[in-house]
Amino acid sequence: MIHDTDPVPTLSFGDLGAQERRAYRRFPNRVSVRCRPATGGFFRGCAVNVSLTGAAVLILSDREPPKISAVQFRRGGREAVEIAARTVRVAPNGKIWLMGCAFDQPLSASQFRQIM
Predict the structure, then answer these.
(1) For 27-73, how does the pLDDT look when each residue is reduced to its tens digit (9 = 90+)?
(2) Per-domain residue ranges for the chain?
(3) pTM metric for this prediction
(4) Distances (CA, A) of 69 to 14, 61, 88
(5) Most buried among 9, 19, 31, 47, by the most CB within 10 A?
(6) Helices marked H in the chain — which ranges?
């Protein structure tokens, strides 16, 4: 698992939009996130893209990350924005995991501006 003291991974899985099926456009983004599993606590990752209804998050871990109940975004010195979410997809690439997250509700304009 990634802990708060570990660096945020910055690797990419290439063209994440190769088979676009989403209702909302994804925006490339590199922002530090903390994912909250349903069991409690947090683990860190890096959002590589965000849409109004979800995000793709890279996580460095020896094993599959747990299912999440929320994602907390923090950009620079801005206040953190926590969004209720669920895991919809997990794809491994060695110790790097690409986790697709769907937000429980679409982002508001204010939340989207804070994240981007």
Answers:
(1) 888 889 999 998 889 999 999 999 999 999 999 999 999 999 999 99
(2) 27-99
(3) 0.77
(4) 26, 18, 11
(5) 47
(6) 109-115
